[in-house]
Design goal:
By secondary structure, the protein is mainly alpha-helical. It has a single domain, classed as Bacterial extracellular solute-binding protein, family 7 (D-Maltodextrin-Binding Protein, domain 2), CATH 3.40.190.170. It contains six helices and three strands; from the N terminus they run ααβαβαβαα. Helix 1 runs parallel beside helix 3. The radius of gyration is 16 Å and the shape is globular. The two termini are about 15 Å apart. Belongs to the bacterial solute-binding protein 7 family. Keywords: Signal, Transport. This is C4-dicarboxylate ABC transporter. Pfam families: DctP.
């Protein structure tokens, strides 16, 4: 899943390649999340930063803000929509106000195990959920398990 998220970001940045090549300053991505750096999500955010900066050779800088240090849990989505932050790693519940479709993950016993969840998220239907909020200014790049 993480590789998919990195690939999606790299592809998106490659599409705007001509403007990247002409940019004197690196593009800065503010990545806000609400957990500590030593958690799986915190470590994943730091790995994302490392891989993006390595692979894009200084053209993109990722600033990670853990522990709600930039925006708290209740303000992150608003900050994303206002352009004050470019990436988040919230729980799916945060997206329910933008699409009710993510409530599928709240249904008890729908999935037999975490592998079934992963299969659904990689399916065409699961991938469609990521783009279902584009009309509201939000594009999901990948799923990130929460609370595991």
């Amino acid at each position: 899943m993480f590789k998919t998220m990195v690939r999606a970001l790299l592809c998106a940045l490659a599409i705007g390649g001509s403007s990247l090549a002409n940019a004197a300053q690196p593009i800065v991505i503010k990545f806000s999340h609400v957990v500590a750096e030593n958690t799986p999500k915190g470590q994943g955010a730091l790995l994302f930063k490392k891989l993006v900066e390595q692979r894009l050779g200084g053209r993109v800088e990722v600033d990670v803000y853990p522990n709600s240090s930039l925006f708290g849990d209740g303000k992150e989505m608003e900050a994303l929509l206002l352009g004050d932050v470019q990436m988040l790693a919230p729980s799916l519940a945060k997206f329910e106000q933008y699409t009710r479709k993510v409530q599928i993950f709240d249904l008890p016993f729908l999935f037999d195990d975490i592998q079934a969840v992963d299969r659904f998220q990689r399916s065409p239907q699961g991938r469609a959920l990521l783009t279902s909020m584009q009309g509201k200014g939000i594009l999901g790049l990948a799923y990130w398990h929460n609370g595991m």
